[in-house]
Amino acid sequence: MIETQSLCVSLGGAQVVHDIDLTVERGRLTALVGPNGAGKSTLLAALGRLVPPAAGAIRVDGTEIGRIPSPDLARRLAILRQNAVIAPRLSVADLVGFGRYPHSGGRLTAQDHDIVRDCLADLDLTDLAGRYLDTVSGGQRQRALIAMTLAQTPDALLLDEPLNNLDLSHVRRVMAVARARAETGAAVAVVLHDLTVAARHADHIVALKSGRVFASGPPEEVVTPEILSALYDTPLEVHDIAGKRVVLTV
Ligand SMILES: Nc1ncnc2c1ncn2[C@@H]1O[C@H](COP(=O)(O)OP(=O)(O)OP(=O)(O)O)[C@@H](O)[C@H]1O
């Protein structure tokens, strides 16, 4: 579980995340949503200890995040950032293998190879395993990065806009894999822009606006026309279609 208490984060001298109290519980999928610039990526980066808090606390399974030794944190927590930079002359399988580095220190064991193979299969990459990253498509590259993050087998999985560049079939697959990790006990937080996907797949939604929590709760409480229209300052409709919530621009 990751918890924050009165978390504030500043970037470039300006505070962009204000007083966030948040819990990313194990066993459930938490979606972070909100308009561009709301602070979702900054919050996720702080949860992954990539950005220091200006004030407040972050605890991972009860321990203050700053007190966890880096090698230990790397085994326990994995984060996929937006626009991750990767070496082009690396194969898809090698990239996914890097996810095992915190566990194996670069010498992959038979078990590490099994995990890499399973993560490649989960992301529909088996046939592309030997391809260099500069020879695959944008969506295939994105899936390789997700597979690398999963290969870390973390207790806390943080994914920043993992659905970028993905077709609908792979959107479904990635959300299913994220859910499966939650169901095996991981704390999973995913930044999403597609509110229909968030409503369908998340157990808990945290909506950010201007660096603050605007609304939080289960999808049925947060995905309403009133809350979403106010969150995005634009009229939005929410319809129930075949028992699922669908969000539409007006
Ligand atoms: N390096 C930086 N220096 C200064 N300000 C920054 C920096 N990075 C981001 N910001 C600002 O911090 C605020 C929050 O940005 P952040 O990337 O967390 O938003 P976001 O909700 O993830 O947005 P998006 O949906 O567009 O990805 C924005 O106002 C942004 O302009």
Annotate the secondary structure layout.
Elements: E1 2-11, E2 14-24, E3 29-33, H1 40-47, E4 55-60, E5 63-64, H2 70-76, E6 77-80, H3 92-98, H4 101-104, H5 110-122, H6 138-151, E7 156-160, H7 168-183, E8 187-191, H8 195-201, E9 204-209, E10 212-217, H9 219-222, H10 225-232, E11 236-241, E12 244-249
Parallel strand pairs: 3-8, 3-9, 6-7, 7-8
Antiparallel strand pairs: 1-2, 1-4, 4-5, 9-10, 11-12
The structure holds adenosine-5'-triphosphate.
Residues 11-12, 16, 34, 36-42 line the site of adenosine-5'-triphosphate (ATP).
Could you characterize what this model shows?
The chain has 250 residues and is α/β, with parallel strands linked by helices. The protein has one domain (2-83, 154-249): P-loop containing nucleotide triphosphate hydrolases (Rossmann fold, 3-Layer(aba) Sandwich). Helix content is 35%, strand content 29%. The protein contains ten helices and twelve strands. The protein has helices at 40-47, 70-76, 92-98, 101-104, 110-122, 138-151, 168-183, 195-201, 219-222, 225-232; strands at 2-11, 14-24, 29-33, 55-60, 63-64, 77-80, 156-160, 187-191, 204-209, 212-217, 236-241, 244-249. The strands form three sheets. The protein has a six-stranded mixed β-sheet, with helices on both faces. A four-stranded antiparallel β-sheet has the order 2-1-4-5, with helices on one face. The chain has a two-stranded antiparallel sheet with strand order 11-12. Helix 3 (92-98) packs parallel to helix 6 (138-151) and helix 5 crosses helix 6. The longest helix is centred in the last third of the chain and has 16 residues, at 168-183. It is globular. The model has no long low-confidence stretch (mean pLDDT 96). The site of adenosine-5'-triphosphate (ATP) has 11 residues, from helix 1. It is a peripheral membrane protein. Residues 2-235 form the ABC transporter domain. One of its GO terms (cellular component) is plasma membrane. Its main location: membrane. GO terms for molecular function: ATP binding; ATP hydrolysis activity.
